[in-house]
Amino acid sequence: MEPGREVKGLHVITWGCQMNVYDSARMTDVLRPLGYQSVETPDAADMVILNTCHIRDRAAEKVFSELGRLRLVKDARAAEGQRTILAVAGCVAQAEGAEILARAPYVDIVLGPQTYHRLPEMVARAARAAGAVIDTDFPAEQKFDFLPDAQAPQTPGGLTAFLTIQEGCDKFCSFCVVPYTRGAESSRPVDSVLREARRLVDSGAREITLLGQNVNAYHGEGPDGRVWGLPHLAEALAAIPGLARIRYTTSHPRDMEEALIAAHRDLPALMPFLHLPVQSGSDRILAAMNRGHTAAEYRDIVLRLRDARPDIALSSDFIVGHPGESDADFDATMQLIRDVGFAQAFSFKYSPRPGTPAAGAPMQVPEDVKDARLQALQALLRTQQDAFNAATVGRVVPVLFTGHGRKPGQLSGRSPYLQPVHVDGPDALIGQIAQVEIRERYTNSLSGTLIQERAFA
Ligand code: 5AD
Ligand code: SF4
């Protein structure tokens, strides 16, 4: 911040995916030179940003109800002579910008995910003008060329960080709004990713999760003038001293190329835990979803991954009740789950998204059928998750310690599979990785004992 500049409060509310968490941090970064600093509550804020998600359910309704609440805060501050700039960002802003301004005219700025680098200019315009500023372009310039690099890890304690390397999607799954809200697929250049990763590591990050709507379709321009894929990028990241763990999410089965599978064998820093959404186990529904692969092809990818990295565990997303899904289709999904075995999964009832092909498709599945299928599917997935956690008991796993546990003398960290782990141990281990023998499992965590007091870097 420039010396002498007035300090202003900024409150960011973030809904949705990890990329929104990352984006919120970047919006905070880009506003810092204007004097904005984070504050805990909206009533202390000169600017409030609501970073929204449009992926499922009544996204717009949720936004309008939150805006109603923020309006009261804005009015109360106005009564005391204080101005609050209210901005709506994220995928609902992109999809329903005009509607937001029509229904909530007290909103000052509406901006889509591709224009965050223009935020300072929008704030300046909003501060000057009466009337709202809207920017939901898909600009020709790449926002990452204009945004400052992330200054620090975005998570508490700062030991784990997110880093967006790819954005947008060209796959057009029948049910999904992402290609419309996040735009066409694009990748950040390798140099810019490596520079930001080094900076994050310098500020304390030991683990980086690479983000992208189709992260394994990454194809960034390399310093050698060639196009680098994710395996090549992961290799370069793994060479950064101090960076112990690399993850990436979310991947598409179609982009799970041999070189990436091989990277799981060759790069110990690449964590053996992969989120690889399959959505359905029925070929008919996979085709209707426009996923571009069959259930057998998914099974084959899993086999090859397990061959390359025997301790790899899988996580997935499932949708039940996509238009046209019959009982037999649903059974095929249950069978795929039984065959593959998932350590963790997210599952959803199909929710029609305006403007997507599936929303207008015939043979919508009744709500009660969706409910029953979701219950059955989640019960099966829960059993698998429990079995996976139970199988960890008795094993020795490397744990990255990220902070204190609830009890005195206790440390908390996470396993390669993102399971929270508690042990008794010295504070000096925070930020380090140490081997832990897992002794017990609880509903949402594990506990164990250190088998070597000395950490390795
Ligand atoms: N209905 C239900 N679930 C959806 N997802 C995306 N769009 C929809 C929708 N319209 C789920 C998919 C995706 C995850 C991020 O959200 O499973 O992988
Ligand atoms: Fe949506 Fe499909 Fe693209 Fe994933 S691959 S973001 S589900 S359109």
Automatic annotation (TrEMBL):
Cofactors: [4Fe-4S] cluster
SUPFAM superfamilies per UniProt: Radical SAM enzymes
Protein name: tRNA-2-methylthio-N(6)-dimethylallyladenosine synthase
Family designation: Belongs to the methylthiotransferase family. MiaB subfamily.
GO molecular function terms attached to this record: 4 iron, 4 sulfur cluster binding; metal ion binding; tRNA-2-methylthio-N(6)-dimethylallyladenosine(37) synthase activity
Keywords per UniProt: 4Fe-4S, Cytoplasm, Iron, Iron-sulfur, Metal-binding, S-adenosyl-L-methionine, Transferase, tRNA processing
Gene3D superfamilies (alphabetical): Methylthiotransferase, N-terminal domain, tm_1862 like domain
Catalytic activity: N(6)-dimethylallyladenosine(37) in tRNA + (sulfur carrier)-SH + AH2 + 2 S-adenosyl-L-methionine = 2-methylsulfanyl-N(6)-dimethylallyladenosine(37) in tRNA + (sulfur carrier)-H + 5'-deoxyadenosine + L-methionine + A + S-adenosyl-L-homocysteine + 2 H(+)
Occurrences of domain TRAM (ranges): 390-452
PROSITE patterns (UniProt xref): MTTASE_N (PS51449), MTTASE_RADICAL (PS01278), RADICAL_SAM (PS51918), TRAM (PS50926)
